[in-house]
Amino acid sequence: MYFTSKITSKLKKKHSKVLIMFFIIALFSCSDKPQTMFELLQPNDTGISFVNEVIETEALNIMQYEYMYNGGGVGIGDFNEDGLADVYLTANVLENKLYLNKGDFKFQDVTNTANVGGKKGWKTGVSVADVNGDGMLDIYVCYSGLGTNKVRANQLFINKGINKDSIPVFEDEAAAFGLDAIGSFSTQAAFLDYDLDGDLDMFLLNHSKTFFSPFYNSTKLRNTRHPQFGNSLYRNDNNKFVNVSEAAGIYGSGLNFGLGVAISDLNQDGLPDIYVSNDYDEQDFLYLNHGDGTFLEVSKKSFGHISKYSMGNDAADINNDGLSDLVTLDMLPEDNFRQKLLKGQDEYSRYQLAVDSSYHKQQMRNMLQLNQGSEKNGTPKFSEIGRLAGISSTDWSWASLLADFDSDGKKDMFVSNGYLRDYTNKDFMKFEVNEAITKVRAEGKELFDESGKREYSGLIYELVKKMPSAKIPNYMFKNQGDFSFENATKDWGFTKPTVSTGAAYADLDNDGDLDLIVSNTNEPVGIYRNTVDKEKNNFLRIKLKGSVKNSHSLGAKVWVYSDSVVQFIENYQVRGFQSSVDPILYFGLGKSEKAAIKIQWPSGQISEQQNVYLNTLLEFDENESKLNSQKEMLEEPYFESTTTAIKYLHKENPFVDFNSNRLALKQSSRSGPKMSVADINGDGQDDIFIAGAYGSLDRLFVSKSGGSYLDTAYNCFKNSKDFESEGSVFFDADNDGDLDLYVINGGSELTLGSPKLQDRLFLNNGKGYLEAAPDNCLPKGFSNGSVVIAGDYDKDGDADLFVGGGALSGNYPDCALGGILRNDSDASKGIVKFSLATDEVNPLLRKSGIITGALWVDINKDSWLDLVLVGEWMPIRIFINTNGKLKEETTAYRLEKSNGLWQSIASADIDQDGDMDLIVGNMGLNLPYSVSEKEPLEAYIGDFRKDSVSSSVISSYVQGKRYPIPSLDEMQGAFPFLKKNFLKHAQYASATLDDIFSEAQLKAAAHLSVYQLKSIYLENIGNGFKTHQLPIQAQFSAIEGIITQDFTGDGIIDVLLVGNYYPFRVEIGPNDANKGVLLQGNKKGEFTVIDRDKMGVWLEGDVRDARVIRNNQKSKIIISKNNDSLQTIQLLK
Question: Is 400:328 a contact under the CB 8 Å cutoff?
Answer without folding.
Answer: yes
